[in-house]
Amino acid sequence: MSHSHLLHTTFVPTAPPSLRRRLGVGAHLPRKPHLIQSKIREIFMPALSSTMTEGKIVSWVKSEGDKLAKGESVVVVESDKADMDVESFYDGYLAAIIVDEGLSAAVGSTIALLAETEEEIALAQSKKSSSPAPASASAAGGNDAPMVLEEMPSPVPAAAPAVASVSSNASAVGSAVHPASEGGKRVVASPYAKKLAKDLGVDLKGIVGSGPNGRVVAKDVEAALAAVNVGGGSAATTAAEVAKPSGVELGSVVPFTTMQSAVSRNMVESLAVPTFRVGYTFTTDALDALYKKIKSKGVTMTALLAKATALALVQHPVVNSSCRDGKSFTYNSHINVAVAVAIDGGLITPVLQDADKIDIYSLSRKWKELVDKARAKQLQPQEYNSGTFTLSNLGMFGVDRFDAILPPGTGAIMAVGASEPALVGTKDGRIGLKTQMQVNVTADHRVIYGADLAAFLQTLAKIIEDPNDLTL
Amino acid sequence: MHSAISLSLSSPSPIARSSAVNDTCPSPPRSLRFCGLRREAFGAGASSAATSLRLTSSDSRSQHSNLNGVFAALKGSSSGFDYDLVIIGAGVGGHGAALHAVEKGLKTAIIEGDVVGGTCVNRGCVPSKALLAVSGRMRELQNEQHMKSFGLQVAAAGYDRQKVADHANNLASKIRGNLTNSMKALGVDILTGFGTILGPQKLKFGKGDSGDKIITAKDIIVATGSVPLVPKGIEVDGKTVITSDHALKLEFVPQWIAIVGSGYIGLEFSDVYTALGSEVTFVEALDQIMPGFDPEIGKLAQRVLVNPRKIDSYTGVFASKITPAKDGKPVQIELIDAKTKEPKETLEVDAALIATGRAPFTKGLGLENINVQTQRGFVPVDERMRVIDANGKFVPHLYCIGDANGKMMLAHAASAQGISVVEQVTGNAHVLNHLSIPAACFTHPEISMVGLTEPQAREKAEKEGFEVSIVKTSFKANTKALAENEGEGMAKLIYRPDNGEILGVHIFGLHAADLIHEASNAIAMGTLIQDIKFAVHAHPTLSEVLDELFKSAKVKLTAPKTVAQAVPV
After folding, report:
1. DSSP secondary-structure letter at A256?
2. Do A191 and B477 count as a contact with CB atoms less than 8 A apart?
3. Chain B residues in contact with A190 (beta carbon < 8 A)
4. DSSP annotation of B207
5. What is the C-alpha separation between A413 and A278, in angstroms, rounded?
6. Distance of alpha carbon B502 from alpha carbon B397, whole angstroms
7. In the predicted model, what is the mean pLDDT of residues A262-291?
8. In the predicted model, is pLDDT for residue B385 greater than 50?
């Protein structure tokens, strides 16, 4: 049902504000109240049980124009408990159906209009056409249709602009013309691509097909959506803008996508926070050895680092805190490690919640799941905006050290460089080859002081240099 | 009827059964082996054949030892012919008839030109069930929310195409073996070759050359079945443009497959292909997909089986031309409007499955020798499966059952028709009630039905002047379904409120195909709602969906209790 929530928000006043902000298509439609005169009545979605917040229209027993007698069944509604027939309280004519079969509506929202006389049907229908149409997608169990996340949540992790630029080369410039599509007059798209395009409000025309014979497949639609430019948040422009190929045209000015705008906003906002940086070098031979040993069980380096960080944070709650109002510490009750991931056209920070409590194997599985969802743009808000500490790792690109910008709303972010062999002199006067990794933590000095970070990094170094606790 | 228990308790019927053998040859010690084989054969090939019979003869419930029949068969034909009964075609229909014939003491032979088991076992219901078993599990494992709701964690599910294909193939060979053994063990002669009717009670079999043998039989049953129907303009290459015969081999899983025809064959394959990762496009000539199902069930099924899956559809169109993929070009499907015949669109897909129906297979049968003209390929028969010739007269001692007569193209219907014919040739007037034969579509969840659809019932009611009532129950209210997290589904009962007669039952939901038999048995036995509603169902089981259905039906008890008569179709 949560999916239908998102798609049919016109009827979901109960959706939390965080959800309402970033709906796909439906949200941007103007929300006009029904201005219904006396003789035209609204039929509301009834509350069929005490726990019901929305209902799905299973079927309309009556069609538009049918005469209704008081007490007659008009519609079958599926609640959280069962399918039930809904009766009319008035005599009249079913003038207009506003919520079609298979779609959901919140309890209390208008699902149809009832006219008292036959003459008023036309009037009622004109009301309907001026009222917001529900999204046309089918809501029936659509668990495979991804949700649209056009906007970034406010605590956008903007650790590494470098990450975004790495991914921008990934999208290729291509021709939208299908070789066998009669010179582009016809769109050849797979059934799922069509379904997705319809659900997401993306126009298939002009999408670059990457499937066999240039056919548009689901991932092309998703890529097009990611590249959508929704300047000013107007959905009306969505479809048209999709057509833009994602390659860079030299000499042109390309407005930000919604995600890029959000990043920009957050970056500017971060300037209001007094940050400072502390660096540290870890020896990772033991961590690398452990990783080699348990890699086959699906454990990833990211999960290991997140786990180590979380365990260190347990001992240093202040590093996991944040300053919300400039007057107080907010000590977070959960240790949620956000990890920056580059995706097409931006970056997102899937969150490993309670990383200190979850074992490394589950954490690795969770991570894989989050990354898959992020790529498919299916992350739920709490899966990317609940981080209390952020990790940004550019080590895989050979970057040995870098500096991250603190995402507003959090206390610290750790930039992780590559793990590389280095010639080290040890205290006993020897010289040896060790694998080392540099990290650089950026923190909000209003709540986190230099000594706090130093102590935290020392603890983290201990964990990383003797990492056996990570597998407990 | 053929459960192990009833067999072991059975004794030769005290009622006049016209079987001399029973009198002269007292029941010998029973061998469990025979029971086992018998059961296996029925269970696999024609799951419901026995239960869907409406027997009007008085001894309908009597049981006979298979051994009696075997001894009879070994004695030879008592009629002066080579055989008492020769069946052309060893599919499920022929097999069912043969087993029943042996039981009735007839010397029986069965002619098979291809492989024992026919379409159902080799290229139909049986291998497709193997693929659907795989697709059901894939679907479940891929449904993350479903797994999570159980608290289960599953890593990405994958499959090995060849092993899936092997499973289907192995199942077919196993069932084929069971069928062959069961007939051999009972003394049915399996004659290899194509059977051709030469005249009344006379036929030949062989490869169609000089080595053919001529035999005589007191009665002959034609059970030659059907082959996939390929409309003209469609070029089947067996690789990218395929029929169900090829699809069941699962030689490749295309990214995008068009399925021409959205009946139960098309629907089942859409279930298999989408579970294995394909995207599907239905091409349907009628105005809506899934024609033939009760409209309400069809609507619900579409909501669950089509809309949320990677499927789209074109309705009201014919595929006028389909060209297989070659030279790097995809499969091309030219669509024309079903009514105006105007060209509409050309689809380009990776593969096309032709599931437009099945055509009777009567080639080489020698129907011209007995002056029988097929109608649209089907052999014309009356309600007792007696073959009718071009002059409208019965061809003596010749019957046709199963897909070849086109009455009801289902394996278990063929078997039931075969048993009905055997009853007749052994002296029992018998008419099969086709309205009691259930049908099922093994999607996830399954669809099943018996009797009339709502529009059919309303039409009949209007014609005959009775009232029709409808009640529905939901799987959402069923404990067992909820425990399985499979609350999606409904059952629908169409009945006469005046006398409590069940006109039709339609189920969509978990294990619907297994649930329908309570309803089909009730129809077959003429059980009325006011009686069946007192039957007790174990709790918690899915069968309570039907229990609730019968209990919620309102019958005006003032009406006199009447037992419905058999309805020939």
Report:
1. P
2. no
3. 255-256, 279, 310
4. S
5. 11
6. 35
7. 89
8. yes
Instruction: Give Cα separations from A14 to A29, A34, A104, B480 (angstroms).
Output: 17, 19, 13, 32
Beta-sheet pairing, A389-393 with A412-425: parallel
Please tell me the distance from the alpha carbon of residue B314 to that of residue B362, in angstroms, as a whole number: 33
| Residue that the structure tokens 């299908």 belong to | A178
pLDDT of residue B528: 95
- C-alpha span between B452 and B55 (Å, rounded): 20
Report the relative pairing of strands B194-199 and B202-206 from DSSP bridges: antiparallel
Confidence of residue B76 (pLDDT cuts 50, 70, 90): low
* Gap between the Cα atoms of A24 and A197, Å rounded: 11
* Residue B304 to residue A140, Cβ atoms within 8 A: yes
Residue B225 tokens, joined: 């079945």
Task: Look up residue B71 and give its amino acid.
Answer: F
> Is residue A249 very low, low, confident or very high in pLDDT (cuts 50, 70, 90)?
confident
Give the Cα separation of A149 and A241 in Å (integer): 16
Instruction: Record the tokens describing residue B205, joined without a space.
Output: 């079999």
- Please count the other Cβ atoms lying within 10 Å of the Cβ belonging to residue A251: 5
Question: Which two three-digit tokens encode residue B544?
Answer: 């309570």
How many Å lie between the alpha carbon of B305 and the closest alpha carbon of chain A?
A: 10
Residue A419: exposure state from Cβ atoms within 10 A (0-12, 13-18, ≥19):
buried
Rounded Cα–Cα distance for residues A47 and A86 (Å): 10
As a whole number of angstroms, the distance between CA B110 and CA B106 comes to 12
Q: Rounded to an integer, what distance in angstroms lies between the CA atom of residue B221 and that of residue A68? A: 57
Say how many C-beta atoms besides its own lie within 10 A of residue B489's C-beta.
27
CA distances for A469 relative to A13, A287, A360, A363, angstroms: 47, 11, 10, 14
Q: Contact at 8 Å (CB) between B37 and B67?
A: no
Q: Among A340, A347, A324, which residue's Cα sits nearest to residue A387?
A: A340
**A358 — alpha (psi -120 to 50), left (phi > 0) or beta?**
beta
Question: Does residue B255 sit at the A interface (CB-CB below 8 Å)?
Answer: yes
Phi and psi based region of residue A32 (left: phi greater than 0; alpha: psi -120 to 50; beta: remaining): beta
- In which order are the strands placed within the sheet that holds B343-349? B317-323, B331-337, B343-349
Rounded distance, CA A273 to CA A381, Å?
A: 24
Indicate yes or no: CB of A102 within 8 angstroms of CB of B303.
Answer: yes
Query: What sign does the dihedral A400-A405-A407-A411 (CA atoms) show?
Result: positive
> What is the largest distance, in Å, between two alpha-carbon atoms of chain A?
100
Q: How far apart are the first and last CA of chain B?
A: 24
pTM above 0.80, yes or no: no
Whether B170 shows a pLDDT value over 50: the answer reads: yes
**Rounded CA gap, A467 and B119, in Å?**
63
Indicate whether A145 pLDDT > 60. Answer: no
A190 and B348 within 8 Å at the Cβ level: the answer is no
Contact A221, A207 (CB under 8 A): yes
Do B240 and B274 meet the contact criterion of CB atoms below 8 Å apart?
Answer: no
Structure tokens at B152: 């289960």
Helix (H) or strand (E) holding B87: strand B83-88
Dig out the tokens for A282 from the structure. Answer: 């870890």
For B486-519, write each residue's pLDDT tens digit. 999 999 999 999 999 999 999 999 999 999 999 9
- Tokens 């030892």 belong to B65
- In the numeric block, which tokens belong to residue B427? 């002296």
What's the average model confidence in pLDDT over A172-200? 65
Task: Calculate the alpha carbon distances from A372 to A146, A163, A168 in Å.
Answer: 11, 18, 19
Please say if A445 is a catalytic residue: yes
- Tell me if B406 sits within 8 A of B415, measured CB to CB: no
Residue ranges of the annotated binding site of B for NAD(+) are 261-268, 284, 357
Burial of B45 (0-12, 13-18, 19+ CB in 10 A): buried
ipTM field: 0.72
Pair A246, A174: CB distance under 8 Å: no
